[in-house]
Input
Amino acid sequence: MTTVTAPANFIELGLISPLLVRLIELEYHQPTPIQAQAIPSVLEGRDLIAGANTGSGKTATFALPLLQHLHAKKALKRSDDSQGNYVTGLILVPTRELAKQVADSIKSYAVHFNGAINTVAVFGGVSTNAQMLALRGGTDVLVATPGRLLDLISSNAIKLDRVETLVLDEADRMLSLGFTDEIAALLALLPKKKQTLLFSATFPEQVKTLTQELLSNPIEIQLQSADASTVVQRVFTVNKGEKTAVLVHLIKQYQWEQVLIFVNSKNSCHHLADKLAKRDVVAEVFHGDKGQGARSRVLDAFKSGELDVLIATDIAARGLDIEKLPVVINFDLPRSPSDYMHRIGRSGRAGEVGLALSLIDHEDYHHFKVIEKKNKILLERESIDGFEPSKVVSVADKPMAKPEGSGKKKRKNKVSVNGDVWLKNT
Ligand code: AMP
Output
């Protein structure tokens, strides 16, 4: 692990003036910890492996040095625009929304380069034609989801042999979503000599293997810590069957301008939206079965404040940046403890204070303990006036039961708690 003394402001990081001016306009008064620690080394061309809380300013950490590199390259006329399907900076991300969001951020950081650097986002769910057209003439920064990028490569719309910088964002997520083969296929097409920047919230075995294969003498930065979060977490115990009533009560009482509610399945999204509608709470749903157009429309309405309540599956849990999102609610608990951190990370971004509420009934109690243990948090169980739970479960009374079957087997949909088999929503 390399020790770095973090500069206190953006000028000391060594960024050039078109970027510094833009940062002032965006009211980035000082670098976030990851920016302060990583940007100088990334500017020097070092590889990087970083673990940081979601919302910690990761995008600028890789985007600003990348833009600075591209700017210098253009000034030296080192770019060879005659080969029309080149790409210089490649950023791989797991979801369509993230691809669009990262590309928008990069375009925004680059406004004072006066169109000299072109940034394109490619992702599935929409026609390839417009994307192929956008890639014509070469691409300085390409933000892509793996599957669509492979499609475009096989149609000869793009080649990766001149990539100079590779960014793998949310690497743990990409590998856990079954992208492993796609990532391997893409890596094989990249030149050996390049700068690689890898961001991962967690470091499972596959990420460690990738790290060894891909990075050369990287600078390592680990800022992932529950303590560093600006999200206030609270957990309310409720009676089974009363979660919807409690949710409506909270929404009406606090009149939040934006609230993102997580459930565990597409059906649950619709089911909950219908139940809220019957109680005069307007909500829209966001999940993987919605067409790309509908997904974008709903998200834009939520981001702009036109829509107050959004019910989503975990597809919304990673990387989405909703400015000043005040509240995230776990209506269903996420299966995986790391998804809990990703969900609550939608709030409290860039140092803003956010609120994350989890509603648990007695059947969720032990699973929530696992989430706490894995994430090294311990929250006081609270109840809401008028909705006090009738069945109180003491932690000491009910030891964690093992999942069904042998300890080694992967947990499927069924989880056994003290002999009662109950179905988790998927
Ligand atoms: P990210 O982790 O890249 O998704 O960034 C989360 C949010 O923080 C985005 O809204 C960024 O615009 C914002 N942000 C990034 N860096 C800074 C900074 N240094 N100062 C203020 N806001 C920032």
Q: What stands out?
A: The chain has two domains: 11-222, 231-423. The first strand starts at residue 48 and ends at 51. Residues 28, 31-32, 35, 55-60, 321, 323, 349-350 surround adenosine monophosphate (CB under 6 Å). Residues 394-426 have pLDDT under 50 and may be disordered.
